[in-house]
């Protein structure tokens, strides 16, 4: 189940902090990727499996401008999916957050 984070302004900017832990202990994943899609799974603005260059126990994914565009009139729901792998056994840790884009009247 996704965590709902509220609304972000159309073509604005939004930061999404993400942390990683195993048994309540912070861990640094060996790899982290993220994707942004609409609620039907269509990838938005080419943001599919974007690699985080320097994995850490906590990261911030920043989306802005066309990352937060409304491409059709009915679907303003977005899903940010984070995929991380850590440990010698390549244990996955996946997270998902959802948010809505707030349509602004005078933003093209």
Could you explain how this protein is built, in words?
The protein is an all-beta fold and 108 residues long. The chain has one domain (3-102): Immunoglobulins (Immunoglobulin-like), CATH 2.60.40.10. It has strands at 3-9, 13-19, 21-22, 25-26, 31-38, 50-51, 58-64, 77-86, 91-102. The strands form 3 sheets. A 5-stranded mixed beta sheet has the order 1-9-8-5-6, with no helix packed on it. Strands 2-7 form a two-stranded antiparallel ribbon.
Question: What key attributes describe this structure?
Answer:
two-stranded antiparallel sheet, single chain, five-stranded mixed beta sheet, mainly beta
- N- to C-terminal separation? 33 Å
- Helical content band: under 10%
CATH architectural designation: Sandwich
What is the arithmetic mean of pLDDT? 90
Structure class: mainly beta
**How large is the share of residues in beta strands?**
over 45%
Shape: elongated
Radius of gyration: 15 Å
- H and E order: EEEEEEEEE
Produce a short descriptive summary.
By secondary structure, this protein is an all-beta fold.
Task: Give the helix/strand layout.
Elements: E1 3-9, E2 13-19, E3 21-22, E4 25-26, E5 31-38, E6 50-51, E7 58-64, E8 77-86, E9 91-102
Parallel strand pairs: 1-9
Antiparallel strand pairs: 2-7, 3-4, 5-6, 5-8, 8-9
